[in-house]
Amino acid sequence: xxxxxxxxxxxxxxxxxxxxxxxxxxxxxxxxxxxxxxxxxxxxxxxxxxxxxxxxxxxxxxxxxxxxxxxxxxxxxxxxxxxxxxxxxxxxxxxxxxxxxxxxxxxxxxxxxxxxxxxxxxxxxxxxxxxxxxxxxxxxxxxxxxxxxxxxxxxxxxxxxxxxxxxxxxxxxxxxxxxxxxxxxxxxxxxxxxxxxxxxxxxxxxxxxxxxxxxxxxxxx
Length: 221
Known about the structure:
It contains 3 helices and 11 strands. It folds into 2 domains: 4-105 and 200-220, no CATH class; 108-188, no CATH class. The longest helix is centred in the first third of the chain and has 24 residues, at 4-27. By secondary structure, it is of the alpha+beta class.
């Protein structure tokens, strides 16, 4: 979905920065600690520092972040979970050797991002439903489709298996190709941090469960 994972990553970065700030404050004499972002929990482990650790870098061996909800300008996200390793913070920014992120995007938020009057819903059996209004032969019809949901080269794809124009059979058959194009979703994920891409997506209760992963990820330059 256009920009939606960028919004999730931005929210997770905010929690990660708060976590690192807590670690730094706790390491200073008399330093006061603060809690991570509301509705979020974070844990970190720090083992033997790597040999290539640079002066001025703060290093965390592993970081886990969980949040029941993250709200971004692109919409709300539920059940956000991120795991990272080899996380480094310096004046140059925040970087992760590896990062995995899972988040649920509600259907209504996804539909707003896609636009064009699209409505999305769960169609059962792990499939998504797509509904939109269109004009055919001077008539306004509601096109409904159900299809599989996949991640393909960083895109969220809904490929229709059934298409229904709500009219006579001859109308559905005659316009099926045109209608199929209207309810086929291929939405590029844009604005992602370098090194990350959408690698999996599925339909869950109330939305899409997206999986994002990457290596050598620059989170906050």
